[in-house]
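User: Could you check the structure of this?
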Amino acid sequence: MTVIVIIVLLFVLLLTGIPVAFSLGGMGLGMLYVGGFSELMAPQSILSTLDGFILLAVPLFLLMSNVLLQGGVGKDLFGAVQAWVGHWPGGLAVATILSCGIFAAISGSSVATAATIGTIAIPEMIKHGYQKKFTYGLLAAGGTLGILIPPSIPLIVYGFVTEESVIALFIAGVGPGIVLIVLFVLYSVIYARYFGGFKPVEKSSMDERRSASIRALPSLLLAVVVISGIYTGIFTPTEAAAVGFSAALIITGLILKTLTWSGFVAASKASMVTTVAVLLIVACAKIFGKAIALYGIPQDISAAIVNNINLPVVFIIVVSAVLLIMGLIFEALSMVLIMTPVLLPAALSMGFDTIWFGIFMVVMVECALITPPVGLNLYVIQSVARASMADVSRGVIPFLALMLLTVSFLYIWPQLALQF
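Assistant: Sure, the predicted structure tokens are below.
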């Protein structure tokens, strides 16, 4: 009964328009007071949260992605990929997905990925006859790669909450990220070939390919440096974020000379606003998590699941349904922070690995990014394309199905996320 009351009150707060951070923090503080616990636990939780070294990676990765966005790096990446694959059946769609994957490996942000590549790819695809709904759905779904392919801010937060190695989580995200890219590319080629009615793009000459590749080379090297530095242990994720931000400034400011002072100021402001929002949600979610732990709610939910669900596959189906429903109301980061302490004990009792469960959750969170009414990537693409929400929402349905198919692959073949 307590669980139901808490869930109803939280939903009421959210539906009245109170920001997620204040809803979580207010609920947590109220639960501490009603339960007779010391309210001093709230500021102590906030301090312990914001004092975490790993969370320094969040503003640094955001700075890096926003500097790249303002420096027009996405245009160079898209141009280089298009020069090599644009003449394929559905080549522009393939170039779009591959560009999203590359930019995701640099920025770690779904919003930055969708906005950067979408600004360039949407007009180009529509000009060449691709259907609008398909184009919008492709970009909204492609942007979600930014939170699965390392570096990933939700994986950083998941690692912080569970005290798991962020590097191990980053490595685990590679396999599922590649599978998603392959599925998106295959669907795009099949759709364009049989249903698209697109106009083929002329094959680029070797000189054009060489020129476009050289233009994009610094950005590609940045991705290689950041990712290889993390995987080889040369950098911690936080140090990699700092190196990436410094390199992004050098690439856009000194090499490409596309970053202006006003662009840098805009990137800094955007990063500051997002960082404050993220850290505020993390801190307030910590208060809420502390309160529900003191009430024994995760243990009660875990016991209820274990007593009523005997098969791991049924557990995954139920959790997937819950996360899809939560995704209709909560944005991505809030889902990770709220649901991890609740679901992880039950997952562990069912025999699932903490790292595997984190990747599973992030794939489901990707689904939340493209489900209305709060799917953030839907609003990004709607804004970039000046399209109707109905067209964007209908366009993502096939890609949502492919994400759920990836979850099936993860369950059938756990080593997809644990092979490293």
